[in-house]
Amino acid sequence: MALDKNGIAKRIAKEVKDGYYVNLGIGIPTLVANFVRDDIEVEFQSENGVLGMGPFPFEGEEDADIINAGKQTITTLPGASFFDSATSFSMIRGKHVDLTILGAMEVAENGDIANWKIPGKMVKGMGGAMDLVASAENIIVAMMHTNKRGESKLLKKCSLPLTGVGCVTKIVTNLAVLEIKDDTFHLLERAPGVSVEEIQKATEGTLVVNGEIPEMSI
Predict the structure, then answer these.
(1) Residue 65 within a domain
(2) Rounded to the nearest 10 degrees, how much is the dihedral formed by the CA atoms of 92, 95, 100, 104?
(3) Which end of the chain has fewer surrounding CB within 10 Å, N or C?
(4) How far, CA to CA in Å, does 160 sit from each of 70, 116, 152?
């Protein structure tokens, strides 16, 4: 059974370690804050100038002045701070973020990522993703394995304009957990009920499968 968006976020939350500073990108990554273990201390950063984000607010408890980079209302934890974009990007460019979690339209087998533009569609710009992929050393991508037409989004080479080159370290999709090593996708885990053959069929890029692949534990 393929995971839904919450399932992807729940699996990625297991990658978040005690003491980490974590940047959450727009889309599925924003859900990760809902699933981090209660017994660890984590600081979630949003590039619009927030450090100490908590889970999404319950309906009726939203504060329109407290938002993340995707303009979604958020909660903040005790000790949270607010600051300008210059300070926020100093944190990012200064490599003070331990883990960056981003969405993507495409990822290539060499770690290239395309997540900001589809040619012909109006966009405001690349935004903070450019700085994040250029500065971060630990990037996990949260994405669907295929597009709405059933075509793979894990490719030999990205077809869309790139956000970053050779920067992705791990990918969690609705079907699998994969690591990028030696310019290839390496299958680490499969979603509950999903076979290795299904994952191979849904992956255009080179996929390495070593031994028995365990099911995700979420």
Answers:
(1) yes
(2) 70
(3) N
(4) 21, 9, 13
| 34-72 per-position pLDDT tens digit | 999 999 999 999 989 999 998 889 999 999 999 988 889
Q: Containing domain of residue 164, as a range?
A: 5-208
SS3 12: helix
**What does pTM read for this prediction?**
0.92
Residues 6+ apart with CB under 8 A from 76: 50, 52, 53, 54, 66
Q: For residue 79, is it within any domain?
A: yes
pLDDT in tens, 170-181: 999 999 999 999
- Work out whether strand 139-142 and strand 99-103 pair parallel, antiparallel, or are unpaired: parallel
The catalytic residue among 15, 41, 43, 47 is 47
Q: What is the domain count for the chain?
A: 1
CA pair distance 59, 117, nearest whole angstrom: 32
Helix-, strand-, coil-residue percentages of the chain, each rounded to 5: 15, 25, 55
Within-domain flag for 218: no
Look at residue 217 and tell me if it is in a domain: no
Helix (H, G, I), strand (E, B) or coil at 28: helix
In whole angstroms, give the CA distance from residue 206 to residue 192: 22
Residue 47 bears catalytic tag: yes
